[in-house]
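A.,

Following up on our hallway conversation. Structure tokens first:
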């Protein structure tokens, strides 16, 4: 079936407990928020420290992962257009994930959302987290310089 219910043999969307079990298997330290179906993790990388937020929406069969507070880019920044053009260029080049901007508070996130209707494996979860943190680390110095100019 193209749309609708998952195949009969598919494990289906994971619960928050199942995702935390995968994080344990990946040997990652995290904090779970069962009342919000959310998880937070922190990473130290070569060019910065990054906070990751995971939202597990079992009912909608979606997992959302984001490097939060990646940059602060206020809507009144004098070079907003130039910086936004660079962010959109990076969006175009990235094979996974996207940059998001909230003009109300200036937060820039690097995120990825994917369907889990046929389940989620720890390898896929680890790859998605690793890719986002790696991409964040690869571009953070250039982007922070651009914002600071």
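Then the amino acids I'd put at each of the 149 positions:
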């Amino acid at each position: 079936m193209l749309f609708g219910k998952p195949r009969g043999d598919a494990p289906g969307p994971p619960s928050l407990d199942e995702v935390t079990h995968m994080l344990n298997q990946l040997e990652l330290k995290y904090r779970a928020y069962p009342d919000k179906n959310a998880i937070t993790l922190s990473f130290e990388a070569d060019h910065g420290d990054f906070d990751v937020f995971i939202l597990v929406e079992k009912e909608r069969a979606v997992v959302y992962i984001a490097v939060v507070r990646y940059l602060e880019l206020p809507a009144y920044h004098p070079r907003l257009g130039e910086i936004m053009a660079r962010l959109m260029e990076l969006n175009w080049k990235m094979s996974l994930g996207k940059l998001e901007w909230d003009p109300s508070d200036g937060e820039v996130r690097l995120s990825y959302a994917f369907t889990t209707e046929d389940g989620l494996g720890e390898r896929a979860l680890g790859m998605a987290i690793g890719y986002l943190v790696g991409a964040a680390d690869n571009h953070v110095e250039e982007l922070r310089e651009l914002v600071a100019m």
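Confidence is low (pLDDT under 50) at residues 1-8. Curious whether your intuition agrees with the design.

B.
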